[in-house]
Structure formats: structure tokens, C-alpha cells
Amino acid sequence: MTNDASSLEREIEMTRDRLAGTIDQLLYRAHPKTIVNREVTSIKAHYVDLDTGAPRTDNILKTVAGIAGFVLVFAVIRKIARD
To answer: pTM, whole model, 2 decimals?
Structure first.
């Protein structure tokens, strides 16, 4: 019976340690600075090859074209609204 109790206590302690580790990981992942760093890294990876440091011109050109198109549409709408 003592063996079973000590085995159960060990199992409870191991489970408690795993849960504490999981909670620590969740707190780290949910911390605002961690979220910001993860998003910044993601955006950088979209525009720069993180292995070589070379710019990804295809993604940069797509973004610039999208912004230019938006500005052009906005300017045309304003011009039409004035007339």
C-alpha cells in the first residue's frame, strides 16, 4: 500500500511539473512583447530572405504595386467627387 501511495505521489508531482512548464510556455507565448517579436519576424521574412539577407523583390514589388493602386483609386475617386 505504501508503494502505491508513493508511486501516486510521484505521478502527481510529475504531472504538476509538466503543467507548470506548460503554463510557463503559455505565459511566454501570450506576452505582448513575444507576440510583437513574432509578428515582426514574420513580416521581415516576407520581405527579406532570413537565410541570406537578400531582399525578396517579388514580394516588395507586389506590395508597392498594391499601395500605388490604392493611392491611384483614391485619387480618382476624390477627383470624381470634386467634379
So the answer is: 0.56
